[in-house]
Specification:
Elements: H1 3-27, H2 32-59, H3 62-65, H4 69-88, H5 101-124, H6 129-153, H7 159-177
Length: 179
């Protein structure tokens, strides 16, 4: 993947962080700066580290996967993109304030499962792992921070459109991986 494709991947993966932080920004009323930083650091760390696990897991199966790599990349990105778009149309429950350590770790894991899966595509496309993890982590940090404050101050943006945009980006990356 090129740097531009890594950035698009990072933005698509960061949508979950934006949405989760946005919902917390709608609810949270105290210690906004401190809590937004806790949330953003957690999201950035989990998103930046999870691709390593996916990369290492895929590395063990490399010889079996190489002949199918472009199709595997296609299926992963296409499935994630479709998942984002489908979830955008599901009815969202009102989320409670979630800033404690257990909740932050839970949010970090929940929002980074897609990043774990992307580790396989990073490996199969021979992309620079440290660069990809850094870009994904930074993008997720920035998007989580932005989502929190946008949710806190504007309180009217619907995250559905962001999820759809993330899904479309992933589907475009899926189609591009075939060529």
């Amino acid at each position: 993947m090129s740097l531009v494709e890594i950035i698009f991947l990072a933005i698509a993966l960061g949508i979950d962080c934006f949405v989760a932080s946005f919902s917390q920004g709608l609810i949270l009323k105290q210690n906004k700066t401190k809590n937004s930083l806790y949330l953003a650091v957690t999201m950035g760390l989990f998103q930046g580290l999870m691709p390593i696990i996916g990369y290492v897991g895929t590395n063990g199966l490399y010889r079996l996967l190489v002949p199918l790599s472009k199709w595997i990349v296609f299926v992963i990105f296409f499935a994630l993109g479709l998942k984002f778009i489908i979830e955008a149309f599901e009815i969202q429950k009102e989320e409670a304030e979630c800033i404690g350590l257990k909740c932050l770790i839970g949010l970090g894991i929940a929002t980074s499962i897609d990043a774990l899966v992307s580790g396989a595509t990073i490996m199969l496309t021979h992309t620079n792992l440290p660069l990809a993890c850094f870009v994904i982590g930074i993008a997720s940090f920035i998007m989580a921070l932005g989502g929190f404050f946008i949710g806190n101050y504007i309180k009217k943006i619907h995250p559905k459109y962001l999820a759809i945009a993330g899904g479309v980006i992933l589907i475009i990356l899926a189609i591009k991986s075939l060529f």
